[in-house]
Design brief:
heterodimer, A: 446 residues, alpha/beta, Rossmann fold, 14 helices, globular, B: 335 residues, 2 domains, binds iron/sulfur cluster
């Protein structure tokens, strides 16, 4: 057995907790009402196209992404627009949502075919990018960057590798794992389309070795697709970070402040590859996604195929309600997810999981003096010195913290996770990053 | 639990197992073999010195924090216990208990708390305590009781006084005796390995220290960088002299097995608070400490130089941290 590949700097191995790994994806019942935010992606919010009282079909465009970095939003059910409202989402701020009350009968938009599609069809690169854009596809690993943007390779650069992120390094989450097991062929077809679009000969699917079944399954299927290779990776967080994944797979270092294309790579998530398949062969926009609902005291940890806009509390009810012992609800995984204050917040394109955390793990321990143990430095995948960044930010020395690379921080949380003195390193580093951003903006204005 | 009581905090939402307590008590466990070995060779005296040192350190920390600084006491974190054991390990088993108290007061009061407590002290508190005692009570601090030789199966030469092996060598070399002659009266390598030699409480049994050091490495409380570079430098540097003039210099293995090198390399130079923050910095630190130790042993006035070497390197840590930053991912030159 050869030594498994992984990224070179830092990393941690938290308890994996993949409780829902063996529960097949179930279709989540259509909710009575959906709350669809107009901003579920990085970039400009989409412009609302519908008004109160209007009837919409499933898959209908209801908000249009204007500008290059934005994404379209579609109705995830058939029904009537109840209102355009605001709701506190996982960011903790009120966000504009389109509220739709469901009609009894589901009617899909005419051009969407949900039957077995003809997959021999060929598409031109322009067509693919156009369709991806129309379908509102964003990075489904959690970053929610509009996917079509990544498909336009800047002049002078070539995409040597299409890198597919099937790492799912966040503990507890299993949505990508189940998708790879159940929709392997569809994912591979999506990958082939993207390879042609990028004019790339080689695609690498990186999967951590705690998903052996998915690795074997995709390895078997990928024999039918030329240039696609499945690469098992050592279990190590945060391998799902773009820069870490590229480093793990092909040993190239994306320079600070640059994008993967700088080293000839385009990185897309497995969920995104599946969405591309649906958009191209079925004309189906991104109106649903797989969401893991899990936690140590959850009776039936599950994976659901959920329509966008479904209230998170209904997902929790479906797995047996909020257990007494739970004190924190996370949108996403335990390392990078966001704590929810409002359980009626909706599932969005970036919701990979809902994690219920028990009281004993939910509260922070008191922070003590830094004992200079250097553990934070050893685990930082970006080779930063978190103790120093924290210290500089606390002393408001933001210029120095910029020189020490604070903007390289990928907010993976490995430092805070590891610190034996329980220092809230990442909390403070985030504040520092915000300040440096302000400084940078001011500099540009001058 | 209702929705209104949900805890909101930033990610990450889970926390690793390591805590200051787990680290400190891990170090305590790692020091037990050396303590037991010392009790075997020196009897109750060794235990007494260490136990009183711990009691003094803990009490001083509690009293100073509670009544002088008016802050919540941190004695529970275990760091005062570690300092106490380390201080005891650096003293002769015959030292009067009141002197142990003085050392503890200096270690905890001056070297640790006056700088702001655990994490803020530039120098290893136990070593500061020891050096203070060494300059204040040079006689008591360098009189070594004989090991209780009847207890050991190993051969103890009749000529053995309470002197440390390094002391014997320094004295002999000063008189111009060749090493081979000196070694006839000095303990053998095997004695040094097990601990049937004169020396401070914690340094006598090389074997017990190695066991403890391996435990620290296994538990990932320390990394290899400091001990290996420290020991490697000592072996290399003393080895060069030995190869050139074996009649004047003792072999490198003897250097490693005797004196405070193993105690220093595994337990004192690795003190997190007072050692560098990057791997390269740690290697530089260990190498420097090894170099200074041998320089003092071979050419200095004292037979042993580990304490001074580590303290000197402690002083350099802020500079080492600036000079040896960890390598950043995707670092752009002059970016
Ligand atoms: S959160 Fe930032 S500073 Fe902390 S380990 Fe991750 S990249 Fe490094
Ligand atoms: S891990 Fe915590 S205690 Fe250790 S150096 Fe970093 S901030 Fe300090």
């Amino acid at each position: 057995m050869s030594i498994l590949k992984t990224f070179k700097l830092g990393g941690i191995h938290p308890k994996e907790g993949k409780l829902s790994a063996n529960s097949p994806i179930k279709n989540f019942p259509l909710p009575k009402t959906v709350y669809i935010p107009v901003s579920q992606h990085i970039g400009a919010p989409a412009t609302v196209l519908v008004a109160k009282g209007e009837n919409v079909k499933t898959g209908q465009l209801i908000a249009k992404g204007e500008g290059f970095i934005s994404a379209n939003i579609h109705s995830s059910i058939t029904g009537k627009i109840a209102k355009i409202d605001e709701i506190v989402d996982s960011s903790g701020y009120p966000k504009k949502v389109i509220v739709i009350d469901r009609a009894d009968e589901e009617i899909w938009c005419d051009n969407i075919s949900d039957s077995d599609p003809n997959t021999t069809k060929e598409f031109s690169p322009e067509e693919v990018k156009q369709k991806m854009r129309e379908a509102g596809i964003v990075g489904l690993g959690g970053a929610t960057f509009p996917s079509h943007v990544k498909m336009s390779v800047p002049e002078g650069k070539t995409a040597e590798y299409l890198i597919i992120n099937g790492v799912e390094c966040e503990p507890y989450l299993t949505s990508d794992h189940r998708l790879m097991l159940e929709k392997g062929d569809e994912i591979l077809k999506g990958i082939s389309i993207m390879m042609k679009t990028l004019n790339t000969k080689k695609a690498l699917i990186g999967i951590e070795n705690n998903k052996k079944d998915a690795i074997e399954h995709l390895q078997k299927l990928s024999k039918n697709y030329s240039g696609v290779e499945v690469v098992p990776l050592k279990v190590q967080y945060p391998q799902g970070g773009e820069k870490q994944l590229i480093d793990a797979l092909i040993k190239r270092e994306v320079p600070s402040g640059k994008l993967p294309i700088e080293v000839g790579c385009v990185v897309q998530n497995v969920g995104t590859a599946f969405a591309v398949y649906e958009a191209l062969y079925k004309n189906k926009p991104l109106i649903e996604r797989v969401v893991t609902v899990t936690g140590d005291s959850v009776k039936e940890p599950s994976n659901f195929l959920v329509r966008i806009g479904t209230p998170i509390e209904s997902l929790i009810e479906a797995v047996g309600g909020l257990p007494e012992t739970v004190a924190k609800v996370i949108n996403g995984g335990p390392m990078m997810g966001k704590a929810l204050s409002n359980l009626s917040a909706p599932v969005t394109k970036g919701t990979s999981g809902i994690l219920l955390i028990d009281k004993k793990e939910a509260s922070r321990k008191t922070s003590k003096n830094c004992i200079r143990c250097a553990r934070c430095t050893m685990v930082c995948p970006m080779g930063l010195a978190p103790y120093l960044l924290e210290n500089l930010a606390n002393r408001k020395l933001f210029e120095s913290s910029e020189k020490e690379g604070i903007m390289d921080c990928i907010e993976c949380g490995s430092c805070s996770y590891t610190c034996p003195a329980n220092r809230p390193l990442l909390d403070i580093i985030r504040v520092g990053k915000g300040e440096v951003n302000t400084l940078r903006r001011k500099r540009v204005q001058k | 639990m209702g929705q209104s009581q949900l805890i909101i905090s930033h990610s990450p939402h889970i926390k690793g197992k390591d805590s200051i307590e787990s680290i400190m008590y891990g170090v305590v466990i790692a020091m037990l073999p050396a303590l037991l070995a010392s009790a075997w060779f020196y009897g109750i005296g060794a235990l007494k010195v260490v136990i009183f040192s711990v009691i003094f350190c803990v009490i001083f920390e509690y009293l100073i924090q509670k009544f002088l600084l008016n802050i919540e006491s941190t004695v529970k974190d275990g760091s005062a216990i570690v300092t106490g054991i380390l201080l005891g390990f650096n003293l002769p088993s015959s030292l009067p208990i009141w002197m142990v108290g003085v050392g503890a007061l200096v270690a905890i009061g001056i070297a640790k708390l006056s700088f702001g407590g655990l994490g803020k002290n530039p120098f290893n508190p136990a070593l500061v305590g020891r050096v203070f005692l060494l300059v204040s009570f040079p006689v008591e601090m360098t009189s070594w009781p004989r090991p209780l030789d009847t207890r050991t199966m190993l051969s103890i030469p009749d000529a053995l006084t309470g002197a440390t092996p390094l002391g014997l060598i320094k004295e002999g070399v000063a008189k111009g005796e060749p090493i081979a002659e000196i070694m006839k009266h000095a303990p053998s390598h095997l004695d040094a390995l097990f601990g049937a030699i004169g020396g401070s409480v914690g340094e006598v049994s090389a074997l017990a220290l190695i066991v403890g050091g391996l435990y620290l490495l296994y538990k990932k409380i320390i990394t290899w960088h400091i001990p290996i570079s420290f020991l490697g430098t000592v072996a290399l540097f003393s080895g060069v002299f030995w190869l050139i003039q074996p009649e004047k210099y003792v072999d490198p293995l003897y250097h490693l097995l005797t004196g405070g090198i193993l105690l220093g390399a595994f337990f004192m130079a690795t003190d997190m608070v007072t050692s560098p923050m990057s791997k390269l910095g740690m290697i530089f630190f260990g190498t420097g400490a090894g170099l200074i130790t041998i320089l003092i042993r071979l050419f200095g006035a004292y037979p042993e130089g580990v304490s001074f070497a580590i303290l000197i390197m402690n002083a350099l840590v802020p500079l080492i941290n600036i000079a040896f930053k960890p390598k950043r991912f995707g670092e752009v030159k002059n970016g």
